[in-house]
Specification:
The structure holds two protein chains of two kinds. Chain A is mostly helical. Chain A folds into two domains: 274 residues, no CATH class; 61 residues, no CATH class. Helix content of chain A is 70%, strand content 3%. Chain A contains 16 helices and three strands. Chain B has one domain: P-loop containing nucleotide triphosphate hydrolases (Rossmann fold, 3-Layer(aba) Sandwich), CATH 3.40.50.300. In chain B, the strands form two sheets. In chain B, strands 6-7-8-3-9-10 form a six-stranded mixed sheet, sandwiched between helices. In chain B, strand 4 and strand 5 form a beta hairpin. Chain B is globular. The chains are: A mainly alpha, B alpha/beta. Chains A and B meet through helix 1 and helix 9 of A and helix 2 of B.
């Protein structure tokens, strides 16, 4: 089979998969979710925020004490540069966030009491139909937070599971013996048949991701005037996340030809990987677990590096958007970085390699199987 | 192997691993030798589990050879380009339900590397021929079993095959469908091609086959012209005698 023939085959299989996606309803369902989210974005407005910048810098010289500088850094970390270290009372603010888990309203109260100029803006949704939400940060931070809700939760959690469940039936139907026999009797290689079908699913999901990110970015940009480039990094990250777990679904499909096994297997695998990923970070962040035996620690580290890492993809996505300062609840990334447990580039690479291994296993099974 | 044969099996073996018996393989085909030449319609006959469909699967590359040699259109099986000149009708087509009949034929024609300028008019003619022209733009999910089987015949003819492989092709076909199939076989033979047919329908075999190969428990027990096989008897009687005699 020549390269042009292989490309021609892949093109037709991708086209066929898009047709299948339209017929199954997932195409229009995902477009519908995208349009709904875009509509929500067009209804967003941010008002009352003030231009950001460090104020009262003259006061800094007068209070050059280490504890105050540290507290100022903390407050700046929480509220961005809107928080000025213009007052010596910042130590009280710092006390509230000593362990990274604090009631934010108390920090805000303390900061305001000590004259730290917290941004007092409002976020309104539904073209002002809903009561406005007070936001203690600048316009760009509000947009980044909103983008993280969209990409991190709507797309990376709900969208990913929806796509995994809905496309889980595509491959088992394709490799069912009475369906695939006629295809295998065509002058195309088995590799190109399976690759074409998988590529078709990935192209379909990629198309939906680009549509989702593109339209919500455009809507938010037009409404708020904030045009963030980091949001576009979500496209490859979301697609990678889906591709890895679809690889597991593909492996199950060629082995068992059962849609039910693919649906539950892929979700179960995702949960296992998520739990493994979270557990490993917890191990690094909990001092009380540091006395865990060397063998146990080695096993956890091995499993972490071998398995795909969905939580890490989620965290990298958060970092790419620049929303990390607002979302310390999943994993304290700053602390994880400080203790040397956060290697985002290597983590993404290892996840991609794990995904690739799943596709190779699926391909080998398909190519060597008797039909 | 002789260059003029469209299909040539020589001392072919196929074994499957049996998950229920440790280390013991199931022999599906044992030492099978047969050929299909140009202008021939060869019927593969035999009781259930005789290995007929396995031979077809081996020929089409759907499963791997355990021993022996097979040549397809004078080339080894590994040369998949020869499949561009082969048409295959499965006994029970499970086409996807979402495409229309026309879209399905476009897809299969493309995978058989039929050039688009030839493919498009040919699809129209084939849909007309199999009686589906008026349903060409309907999703296959709405088709009856007979209509799906007619579509299966149409897809096998997209590349105007030199070799047509038919595995129980009349499953679900009505009388006009069976007539259509006989015409298709005659066309392929008329173009100098060959046909390999697996069927349990005695009348069908008697009407279209020029030669027959009888398999019992994976072994070729008799082959020759239909006249030699029948010796004036009805086919079913002749086959019953062969099966009881184990091929002797």
């Amino acid at each position: 089979m020549t390269a042009p023939e292989a490309i021609y085959t892949l093109r037709w299989l991708v086209r066929d998969t898009f047709r299948q996606a339209r017929a199954s309803g997932i195409f229009w369902l995902m477009v519908g979710v995208t349009l709904m989210c875009t509509l929500v974005c067009t209804s967003v407005s941010v008002s009352g925020d003030v231009p950001l910048g460090i104020k009262g810098e003259a006061g800094i010289e007068a209070v050059q004490r280490d504890d105050v500088r540290k507290a100022a850094g903390v407050v700046a970390g929480v509220f961005g540069q809107a928080a000025s270290p213009a007052t010596a009372g910042l130590a009280e603010v710092a006390a509230f966030q000593a362990d990274g888990h604090y009631p934010q309203y108390k920090v805000v109260e303390a900061a305001l009491r000590h004259g730290v100029p917290i941004v007092q803006g409002e976020l309104s949704l539904g073209f002002g139909a809903f009561p406005a939400i007070e936001v203690n940060r600048g316009r760009e931070d509000v947009v980044r937070t909103f983008q993280f809700q969209l990409a991190g939760w709507v797309a990376d959690a709900f969208g990913l599971l929806l796509a995994l469940i809905w496309t889980a039936g595509f491959l088992p139907a394709f490799v069912e013996p009475s369906a695939v026999s006629v295809l295998l009797a065509k002058p195309v290689s088995r590799w190109s048949l399976l690759s074409g079908k998988i590529l078709g699913v990935l192209a379909f999901v990629g198309f939906q991701v680009v549509l989702f990110i593109g339209l919500t970015w455009l809507a938010l940009g037009m409404r708020t005037g904030v045009w963030t480039s980091g949001y576009w990094a979500c496209v490859p990250l979301l697609l990678l996340h889906f591709a890895i777990f679809f690889g597991f679904s593909a492996m199950l499909a060629v082995s068992t030809r059962s849609t039910v096994v693919c649906v539950f297997g892929a979700i179960f695998f995702w949960l296992i990987c998520w739990a493994m990923n979270y557990g490993r970070h917890a191990l690094w962040l909990q001092p009380e677990l540091s006395d865990l035996g060397g063998v146990s620690r080695f096993l956890v580290e091995s499993a972490y590096w071998i398995l795909p890492k969905p939580l890490d993809i989620h965290l990298v996505l958060m970092q790419a958007i620049g929303a990390e300062t607002d979302h310390r609840d999943v994993v304290n990334l700053a602390e994880l970085t400080r203790v040397g447990g956060w290697l985002p580039g290597l983590s993404i690479l290892a996840s991609a390699v794990a995904g690739l291994a799943l596709y190779v296993a699926a391909g080998y099974e398909f190519v060597t199987k008797d039909y | 192997m002789s260059a003029e044969a469209l299909v040539e099996f020589r001392r072919v073996y196929k074994t499957y691993a049996d998950p229920w018996s440790r280390g013991r393989d199931v022999v599906a085909v044992r030492d099978a030798t047969l050929r299909v030449g140009p202008g021939e319609v060869v019927g593969l006959l035999g009781p259930n589990r005789a290995g007929k469909t396995t031979l077809i699967k081996l020929l089409l590359g759907l499963c791997r050879l355990s021993g022996g040699e097979i040549a397809r259109l004078g080339r080894p099986l590994s040369d998949r380009r020869t499949l561009a000149q082969v048409g295959y009708v499965h006994e029970n087509h499970a086409f996807p339900k979402y495409p229309t009949a026309r879209a399905l034929l476009e897809f299969y024609g493309a995978l058989a590397f039929v050039p688009q300028d030839i493919l498009q008019p040919r699809i129209g003619r084939l849909l007309e021929r199999v009686g589906l022209a008026d349903r060409a733009d309907e999703p296959i999910g709405r088709f009856s079993k007979g209509m799906v089987q007619r579509l299966g015949i149409a897809q096998a003819l997209l590349n105007e095959p030199r070799l047509l492989v038919l595995d129980e092709p009349t499953e679900g076909l009505d009388l006009s469908g069976r007539v259509l199939l006989r015409e298709v076989v005659a066309d392929v033979v008329g173009r100098g091609g060959g046909v390999l047919l697996v069927s349990h329908v005695a009348a069908e075999v008697e009407q279209v086959c020029t030669r027959a190969v009888v398999l019992v428990r994976g072994q070729v027990v008799r082959q020759g012209s239909l006249a030699e096989l029948l010796k004036g008897r009805p086919l079913e009687t002749a086959l019953a005698e062969i099966y009881q005699g184990g091929g002797a």
